[in-house]
Amino acid sequence: MGTGQNPSPFSRLVEETMRLRASGEWFLDELGRRVLLRGVNLGGSSKMPTHPDGATHLPTDYAGHRSVSFIGRPFPLQEADEHYRRLRQWGFNVLRFLTTWEAIEHAGPGQYDEEYLDYLYAVVKKADEYGFVVFIDPHQDVWSRMTGGDGAPGWTLELAGFAIDRIDPSDAAITMAGRYPNYPQMVWFSNYDRLACATMFTLFFGGNRFAPQARMEGEPAQEFLQRHYIAAMEQVAERMAGLPHVLGYDTLNEPGAGYIGLENLDEVRLNTPGAPLMTPFQAMVTGSGFPLVTRQTLRHGSDTLTDQPVTLNPQALSAWLSPEADIWRQHGVWDVDEAGRPYLLRPDYFAGTRFFADCMQPFVARFAQAMRRHDPDALIFIEGVPGVPEAMQAPAGVPLVNASHWYDEWTLFNKHYDPAFSANWRESQIILGEHAVRQSFLEQLRRIKSMSQQSLGGVPTLIGEFGLPFDLDGGLAYRNGEYGLHLQALHTYYALLDELWLHATHWNYTADNCNAWGDGWNQEDFSIFSPDQQTDPDDLNSGARALTGFCRPRLLACAGLPMEQTFDAQSGEFVLVIGAEPRPNLPTDVFVPQSSYPQGFDVWISGGSTRYDEQMQVLHWQGMKMGVHELKIRRRT
User: Fold this and answer.
1) How high is the pLDDT of residue 91?
2) What one-character-per-residue DSSP string does 567-588 give?
3) C-alpha distance across the termini of the chain, in Å
């Protein structure tokens, strides 16, 4: 596929819907139609620099963290047409567009990568040519690359008092770069509870309250970190302000609470599969130079075993630059007895504070004010860590979107899908039977949507991330070409989104994915596309993984009230029920992909008329009288 081709057919579809606005649970276009947003996260490898190659399986001590480049994430600008054209052919209309704080401000506080920002503007601007709306996601996982994830620049850790080259060896974090091949799958998530990440999030959201002596360049740590983070994102907002297809900004991907709100530092709060068992206090002192003998969790079928002993930080290294830099010992949380053994002084030091209500909410208000200085109509997307029970809170006067994430946790952690078995790790609940599993998923998603109504004031719900690993069962599908389990899972997930009328962005599309290393980050392999599956570069569907699982018929824009939407993947029957409004010349648009109907399809309607745009794969339905109307599509054989 060449580049620079005229994308006018795509822009023609949306030329009247340049700016969407939120209204209740829906997004409205400029014609007043209710728009259902379905799209992807772009992209999985945007967490890592292009130069030097930041793929997490490559060893590094992060010594050059100030001189990296993210230009070319999610793909080189000269390849953008190909990828946007493919995503549009698959029926997506929204992109959750990843960037990171590190990508913008890696060189040092206040030193912005202008070349990267120019690239980011150009690649986001081009998305408009293909009819996409975009919201910018300042992505992070467990704070930064140096603490086992991605997001913040390395200098934030240095200013907090950490020696970056000792963070992993001291077990203050676990990184794939420092451990591979001895790196359990999905263990990165446990870094939320380890010293480095927990400290940084506590400083970022609660430094004033819990670490008043911690200062960065003479400024309170919380103020310094939040001010620089928001200023970096303002660099993006200032450039994007003239792009009406940019809906708004996510505040921060899956923000961690750190130690904030913990009632007892001496109790295990979450047993992450594959991670060592530690209390927050044990993790705190282990990273500060005290070895710990504990147990390592192991997977075995549907059971989690915890009978393998493991010694953490056997070299007794401290992640702190010096003993004086140890923030929590400095603040009297713990100390060392005469025998040189650490002991806990204040198990309830972080208790009594609600993360969202007391810390996240004022941050969201501050972030929103800054973004809306550059774009007064920008929507603010908020989320928490998946599964955390505390309800999100809405700052007064901020136009929000609930962008919570949802995953089938059993499949996520075990890379195995069984339609009749699932587990909720946080509630220690096993779910048996296909119907029970589906109902559990439905209730989880329904709770997310109800939060939009009950605590956020009736705002849209866009599931910011959902999806599944494509390397199920050791990447079996890559060897035998069979994606039956993937299709079964995706049909279930999308059917639930349809049932609840949820907007969503699939995790993810990674342009440089490969079978060997997946998305290039911590053994994750979620991309719906891979060049390794691409056999015909001129066929936009080539390279798709389980294409018909996510490329499905669905409502795009409704001239009325959407009431019901179902799709039977096996029979190909699609049903849409709407309450038509008295504007018969205004079309309701339905995406009908040819990949789901290779031999064509027949349409039945209760009223009005239809016209199918074969190039755009869009069925226009209009001319209905006011009232409830139904459209059915059936596959020809």
Assistant:
1) 98
2) E-TTT--EEEEEEE-S-TTSPE
3) 31
Q: d(Cα 578, Cα 585) in Å, to the nearest integer?
A: 15
What sign for the dihedral angle of Cα 408, 411, 417, 420?
Answer: negative
Q: Largest alpha-carbon pair distance within the chain?
A: 85
Instruction: Count Cβ atoms below 10 Å from residue 436 Cβ, excluding itself.
Output: 14
Give CA angle at 577 (448, 419), nearest 5°.
50
pTM confidence score: 0.95
**524 belongs to the catalytic site:** no
Point out the catalytic residue in the list 383, 409, 465, 524: 465
The C-alpha atoms of residue 346 and residue 333 are separated, in whole angstroms, by 5
Backbone angles phi, psi at 584, to 5 degrees: -60, -20
Nearest 5°: phi and psi at 225? -65, -50
Q: Which of 254, 383, 409, 524 is catalytic?
A: 254
Distance between CA atoms of residues 325 and 336, nearest Å: 15
Q: Cβ distance 86 to 529 under 8 Å?
A: yes
- 26 beta partners: 23
What residues does 522 pair with on adjacent strands?
A: none
493 neighbors 474 (Cβ within 8 angstroms): no
CA dist., res. 235 & res. 229, Å (int): 10
pLDDT of res. 302: 47
Look at the block and give the residue holding tokens 């390592």. 296
Q: What is the pLDDT of residue 273?
A: 72
The encoded tokens of residue 326 equal 């140890």
Partners of 311 in the β-ladder: 293
Whether 605 contacts 557, CB under 8 Å:
no
10: pLDDT strictly greater than 50 = no
Band (300; pLDDT cuts 50, 70, 90): low
For residues 351 and 551, give the distance between their C-alpha atoms in angstroms, rounded to a whole number.
46
Render pLDDT for 553-575 as a digit per residue (tens, 0 to 9): 999 999 999 999 999 999 999 99
Confidence of residue 426 (pLDDT cuts 50, 70, 90): low
| pLDDT tens-digit map of 497-528 | 999 999 999 999 999 999 999 999 999 999 99
- Asked whether 501 and 77 are in contact (CB, 8 A), the reply is no
Q: What is the mean pLDDT of residues 54-79?
A: 97
**pLDDT at res. 305:** 56
Q: Which of 395-409, 415-429, 620-634 comes out lowest in average pLDDT? A: 415-429
3-state secondary structure of 591: strand
Coil, helix or strand at residue 462: strand
- Helix (H), strand (E) at residue 457: none
Q: Which amino acid is at 480?
A: N
What value does the CA radius of gyration of the chain take, rounded to a whole number of Å?
25
Integer Cα distance of 382 and 437 in angstroms: 27
Copy the structure tokens of residue 130.
């293909």
465 is catalytic: yes
C-alpha–C-alpha distance, residues 601 and 637, integer Å = 9
Give the list of residues 6+ apart from residue 484 with CB closer than 8 angstroms, or none: none
Token duo for residue 141: 């996982």
Helix (H, G, I), strand (E, B) or coil at 58: coil
Tokens 């100030």 — which residue? 66
